[in-house]
Write a structure and sequence with these properties.
Blueprint (H helix, E strand, L loop, with lengths): L3 E4 L2 E3 L2 E3 L4 E2 L2 E2 L4 E3 L2 E3 L4 E4 L7 H9 L7 E5 L5 H4 L2 H8 L3 E4 L1 H11 L6 E3 L5 E3 L4 E6 L9 E5 L4 E5 L18 H16 L3 H14 L5 E4 L9 H12 L4 E9 L4 H15 L3 E6 L5 H8 L2 E8 L1 E2 L2 E2 L1 H13 L5 E8 L5 H11 L9 E4 L4 H21 L1
Parallel strand pairs: 8-9, 9-10, 10-11, 15-16, 17-18, 17-19, 19-22, 22-23
Antiparallel strand pairs: 1-2, 2-7, 3-6, 4-5, 7-8, 12-13, 13-14, 14-15, 20-21
Helix pairs in contact: 5-7, 5-9, 6-7, 8-12
The structure holds MU-OXO-diiron.
The site of MU-OXO-diiron has 9 residues, from helix 2.
Length: 397
C-alpha cells in the first residue's frame, strides 16, 4: 500500500493487519491497522511505529516519501508493542536525534527495550517542540489507556494525533471516516471504547476538560488504529462524552451458558418478560458470542441478566470468564439478576449474585434456581423475573 496524505506534508505510513483475529484477547473479526504518521519539516518527525513484523512495511512507505535516515525525531505517544514493537529496528536505521516520550513513557521504554543509550527527551503536558514550520504540543493522557499514553497536537495543521484514543480495530483499504460505512465505523469505535477505555472513563472526562481549557482547534483526529477522523470529529467526540458517562438506554441483555438447555429455556422466558416491559433486548449464548462483542452492548444497556447452570459447585467456565472480564472493565450503574438450573447443589445463582454485588449492580431480586428441567410454572417465574427487571429499568431511566 502507498503512503496516504493526511495533511500537507503529513503522511500515514502505517500498516493494515488484515488477518489478525485475536488482539491480546480482543476478537478482531475484521483485522486492525497500526497507524504511524510522518511529518516532513525542518525536523522530519515520525509519530509512533507499528507492531513487530510490520517494520519493513513502515520503512517501505517512509522511503516513498523520504530517506528514513533523514528522520530527526521520533515521537512515542504510547509504548504498547503494537506502536513501539519495531522501534529497535527503526532507531537502528534512523539514528534519530531525539526520541520524545512522556515521563512514564521513558520508564516503559527502558523496561521494554533495555536501551539506556537512546536519545530520550521527556516531554510533559503543555511542552511544545518546533519542527520548523509546525509545532507539536503534548498532552499526557495517563491511563488512556496506559500510564505513558499521550496526545500530540499540531496546531498549524489542526491535527490531533491521539494514539489509541478514538481508535477502532477495523482493517480497510480506506483511511478516512468519510470513505467507509458510518454505522459500522461507530460500532467498531464503541467496541474499542467498551473493551479498552471503559475502566478509565473518568480519565476520558478529565482529558476532554484539559483539551477544552487549552482551546485546541483540530479538524482531524489521526488515531493509531483504524480510520482517521475528519468528517465526524464532533460526532466521535460526543460519542466519547456519552460513553464515558456510561449513559444507558432502555436496553437489557440476557447473557447465559447452559448444559442441557434448561438454562437456555429460562433465558428465553426472561427475555420474554423484558420484552413485555418494552425494553430493547439482546440474548447472548456464551457459546456463540465473544465476551468483547457482548461488552459493546453492555456499554449502553441498563440491565444485564445472567444465567448459568451449576457445575462442580460453581458456574459454567465461560460465564466465569465473562464476569471476570466484565468486572475488570468496571461498568457502572447497571441493574442485574441471575437464574440457572442445577441438579443437586445449585451454587451458580448465588455466585452470579455475588459477582454482581462486586460490580456494584443493583440486584432487585434474589434470582431463580430450577432443579434439572424447568416446568411451565418455572418458566412463568422467569417471565416475571424479566418483567421485574424491565420495570426497574423503566423506573430508573
Ligand atoms: Fe494500540 Fe495500547 O496500544
Amino acid at each position: 500500500m502507498e503512503p496516504v496524505v493526511v495533511k500537507d506534508n503529513v503522511y500515514w505510513v502505517g500498516s493494515v493487519d488484515w488477518n489478525v483475529r485475536n488482539f491480546h484477547g480482543y476478537s478482531t473479526h475484521q483485522g486492525t491497522t497500526y497507524n504511524a504518521f510522518l511529518a516532513i519539516d525542518d525536523k522530519v518527525t515520525l509519530f509512533d511505529t507499528v507492531k513487530p513484523g510490520f517494520g519493513g512495511e513502515l520503512v517501505d512507505k517512509i522511503r516513498q516519501i523520504t530517506d528514513p535516515e533523514k528522520i530527526d525525531y521520533i515521537v512515542v505517544d504510547h509504548v504498547e508493542m503494537d506502536h513501539s514493537g519495531c522501534l529497535p529496528e527503526i532507531v537502528s536505521l534512523v539514528k534519530p536525534e531525539k526520541i520524545f516520550c512522556s515521563p512514564m513513557g521513558k520508564d516503559a521504554l527502558l523496561h521494554h527495550f533495555h536501551r539506556d543509550d537512546w536519545p530520550y527527551q521527556v516531554v510533559k503536558t503543555g511542552d511544545r517542540i518546533s519542527l520548523g514550520k509546525r509545532t507539536v504540543e503534548f498532552l499526557e493522557t495517563r491511563m488512556l489507556h496506559w500510564p505513558d499514553s499521550m496526545f500530540s497536537y499540531i496546531p498549524e495543521d489542526k491535527l490531533l494525533i491521539s494514539n489509541d484514543g478514538f481508535g477502532q480495530h477495523w482493517a480497510t483499504s480506506e483511511r478516512f471516516d468519510d470513505e467507509v460505512d458510518s454505522s459500522e465505523l461507530f460500532k467498531q469505535a464503541a467496541k474499542y471504547y467498551a473493551n479498552i477505555l471503559l475502566p478509565f472513563s473518568s480519565r476520558v472526562t478529565a482529558a476532554f476538560q484539559e483539551v477544552r481549557e487549552k482551546n485546541w482547534a483540530f479538524d482531524t483526529i489521526a488515531t493509531d488504529h483504524g480510520l482517521i477522523w475528519r468528517r465526524d470529529v464532533d460526532k466521535i467526540l460526543q460519542s466519547y462524552v456519552k460513553w464515558s458517562r456510561q449513559e444507558a438506554t432502555a436496553k437489557a441483555l440476557v447473557v447465559y451458558d447452559t448444559m442441557w438447555h434448561s438454562t437456555a429455556k429460562m433465558a428465553s422466558a426472561v427475555l420474554d418478560g423484558l420484552l413485555l416491559e418494552g425494553l430493547s433486548v439482546r440474548l447472548f449464548d456464551l457459546r456463540a458470542n465473544s465476551r468483547d462483542d457482548i461488552m459493546t452492548d453492555v456499554l449502553d444497556a441498563k440491565a444485564i441478566v445472567f444465567g448459568s447452570s451449576t457445575i462442580n459447585n460453581g458456574m459454567l467456565p465461560q460465564m466465569a470468564d465473562m464476569l471476570s472480564y466484565m468486572k475488570g472493565l468496571k461498568p457502572t450503574g447497571k441493574i442485574g439478576a441471575a437464574f440457572g438450573s442445577y441438579g443437586w447443589s445449585g451454587e451458580a445463582v448465588k455466585l452470579l449474585n455475588h459477582m454482581m454485588e462486586e460490580m456494584k449492580f443493583e440486584v432487585p431480586d434474589p434470582g431463580i434456581r430450577v432443579k434439572y428441567v424447568p416446568t411451565d410454572a418455572d418458566l412463568a417465574k422467569c417471565v416475571e423475573l424479566g418483567r421485574k427487571i424491565g420495570k426497574a429499568v423503566n423506573e430508573r431511566l
